[in-house]
Amino acid sequence: MELGDCCLTSSPASGEKRKLHRTQQKEKPFRGIRMRKWGKWVAEIREPNKRSRIWLGSYTTPVAAARAYDTAVFYLRGPSARLNFPDLIFQEDELRDISAASIRKKATEVGAKVDALQTSLHHASASSSESSNPTRVFRKPDLNKYPDSSGED
């Protein structure tokens, strides 16, 4: 057995780790979020020096979940925090109480706004492409919205 033979056994293991890391990057495009089996994106963060987590919400887009995470991590760890979108964070003076509840509230507000914007942009692009197609496409209703009173009876 030569000296080079022993190193061959450790090489595939490191290759497998790299492959696993690449697949995790594909599944998880941003920090602090994960995708549920049914397609929703969720965000949560650990409280500093505690084992508990702060639930930041469930969103239809990964960008919304990542923005909610960014908001929470910014208020927990300050400007030195590693953010998904460092250019999009705005420090506001309105969040003086840095409790878990206030951070959760602020993060879910940001996430909900981004989710609504992302969803409306997606639906606008989908409806513009459908306008050329005369067949009607039925979509599942968003149960988080109030019914539209446009008179479609």
Notes on the protein architecture:
The protein has 3 helices and 3 strands. It is mainly α and 153 residues long. A 3-stranded antiparallel β-sheet has the order 1-2-3. Strand 2 and strand 3 form a beta hairpin. Helix 2 runs antiparallel to helix 3. The radius of gyration is 22 Å and the shape is globular. It is found in: Nucleus.
What's the level 1 CATH class of the domain at 33-123?
Answer: Alpha Beta
Taken from the alpha-carbon principal axes, the silhouette is: globular
Mean pLDDT: 75
Q: Secondary-structure element sequence?
A: HEEEHH
Distance between the termini: 81 Å
The main pleated sheet reads as: 3 strands, antiparallel
Strand count: 3
Radius of gyration: 22 Å
The CATH superfamily of the domain at 33-123 is known as AP2/ERF domain
- Percent of residues in β-strands: 5-15%
The number of distinct helices, counting runs of at least 4 residues, comes to 3
Protein structure class: mainly alpha
Please identify, by name, the CATH architecture of the domain at 33-123.
Answer: 2-Layer Sandwich
> CATH topology of the domain at 33-123, what is it called?
GCC-box Binding Domain
Give the proportion of residues in helices. 40-55%
Query: Uncertain regions: pLDDT < 50 for 5+ in a row?
Result: 6-10
* Strand ordering within the main sheet: 1-2-3
Region (Disordered): 1-24, 121-153
Keywords: DNA-binding, Ethylene signaling pathway, Nucleus, Transcription, Transcription regulation
Organism: Gossypium raimondii (Peruvian cotton)
Pfam family, one: AP2
